[in-house]
Fold Cytochrome c domain-containing protein.
Amino acid sequence: MAAEASHGAQIAAACASCHDPGGRGHAIPPITSLDEQTIIKFMHNYRASESSSHVMHAVALSLSEEEIAAVARHLAANVRHRGRP
């Protein structure tokens, strides 16, 4: 479980290069307030080209289902730790 959490954190660090961890980005939507299932749903939509971002389509294709789940859990856990629902 610790290895999965670490891997989720590593992937999330790459996400933070575009998605401002403080949620202040205006051009790129923030991901810091999303729950686990929403993140997974969005990633599946990007993978299936149901959303219009070429960059996120490539990112979603590059991640396995396990990696998507790990980063979603990591991001959602950080939201809970900051006291958000």
